[in-house]
Design brief:
The complex is a heterodimer. By secondary structure, chain A is α+β, with helices and mostly antiparallel strands. Chain A is built from 6 helices and 18 strands. Classes of the chains: A alpha+beta, B mainly alpha.
Amino acid sequence: MTTTDRVEFLLRRAVAVNPSEDGLRRLDERVARVMAGTVSTQPRARATRVRFLRPLALAAALLLAAGAVGASLGLLDQTIDESALPGWRVAWDRAEIISQRQTDAGVTVSLERAYADVNQVLVGFTVEGLESPTLASGMTESLSWTADLRDPAGRPAEHWATSITASGRDVTGLSAVIQTWLGAPPATAGTWELTVTSVGYGGTGFVPGECTVGATEPQCVDPVDRMIHGTWRFAFDLPVPAGALVVGPVGETVGSATITLTELRIGPSAITSRLALIVDGDVVSYWGPTNASVRFSGSSYGLSNATHITTDPAAQGPHGDENEFPIDTGVAAPAGTWLIEVPELWYVTGDADADAAITLRGPWTLEVTVP
Amino acid sequence: MSATDRLDPASFGQLYETHRLAVFRYLRARTQNEADALDLAAVTFERAFAGIGRFRGRDGGVEAWLFRIARNCAIDAHRRRRPTVELTGADDQLGRAAASTDRQEHERIELLDLVARLPGDQGEALLLRYAAGLTAREIGLVIGKREAAVQKHIERGLATLREAFDDHD
């Protein structure tokens, strides 16, 4: 096979990914609901109502306020449903009702709910008072925003979060945002603080993945700051994050390789395990298990995604190269025996790419008990 | 269906059946995990259904129209996630967030990382060509370039990937 053939072959293979049966079923159902008209994708009906509110007399506006709150919650609820993440639904249903509204620069941000467990902090807020420009394609522009979260000790979320995920939904004049900080929040009850510092449609121009070096698109060359800057600050109380935390190490050695469970966090909305690998005689720079799973009470959860924690081999701890494996389904009653099984693993050393990966066969079985 | 000047909402089911896999694959190549790709695919078809009355065949056919929507959805999603790049010191981890534990998947992610780093619209053109299966003309209608320019984008993008693979070898 020539290099030319190989590149095209690899490219075709790389993109020829099929959705899982379950994922495809959810997609089919979601589109079927839209076609059946049970989900409103037409922003115009709500847009009319939101625009209509502004010139109304105060009394009339108050009468309609209850309906507006309902619309906000409905849009947030839709965002949760459409995330296709079972853990988000659990978090949303268990979340504390906050219902705080802050207005600055003519824009009202409403923090409706907040939730914390041992794996994430989730907030849901809405933004009203901005006119979303209609794109050339006829679609409604999506909201951009900047938000800062501080824990009860006053520390920014960067101290414990390993990643942030957000999703949203927009109709004209109203946007709903669900944002989560994934990681291990501090295990204390107390007052959290969320500060939104800018909101807007169209952002400031830089779009990761779109504005590469040398790009000539207008939004990259001459970015326009269409954001509204302000301070929308919310202080709210949350109980101790729910769930169980098991701190290792629990390890097993098979041949030259030792896998160590350094941490297992089991919350109602997610399960996260941290696994580290040491191979005798090698410095592992990156590794992954094959067909690994977490088992509990007759259920099995696949470890299919990983966040590489020790990206610098020099920063590895005593247990070696560490990955964090999130599962977006949680368990509310975690007491019992948990098994993590790794039938096979692969790893690379130094700067080698995946072509040079070394495969080792196990299985490695790690068992922990949650009281 | 490309020659159709207007789309009948009653035919949307057939449109969805015909294009759902290509839309998913295109979005899967641009996102970090299946859930995100499925979510964006659903939003794409929701927006398409909502905007079906605005479709005009003379603007480039169903495929170009649909993938313009899909591309905009993907761009919107990038914008939404902008707060993630503000997480101090975590960029590398975030880049790896969806790194699969499967070896072939790891190779796939590495190749798509290379495609994402191609300059200008080269990467976009390659994804629309190989994931979405569009012609150079249709790609041009999606990204706003002439057919010849798209062809050059594809050739240059492939050439860069070949050089990268030669370096690996």
